[in-house]
Amino acid sequence: MLINLIPKKIEAFICHLKSDKGITAIEYAIIGVAMSSALYYIFNDGNFLETLRQAWSTMGNKITNSGNIL
Q: How far is the C-alpha of 44 from the C-alpha of 33, rounded, in Å?
């Protein structure tokens, strides 16, 4: 009885090794790290928010200075 169980367990183990679900998880983890690194750079070190504030300020000033053209 035990002898019949061993080949089935070996086959299940080999099938588990051939499964690529773990590879997909690793790929998603690498993509997640890359995206989080890019977002960190954009919002912290890349001065994205300061540039955005300056653009809104410039646009607001130009609208205010344009007068009542409507």
A: 16
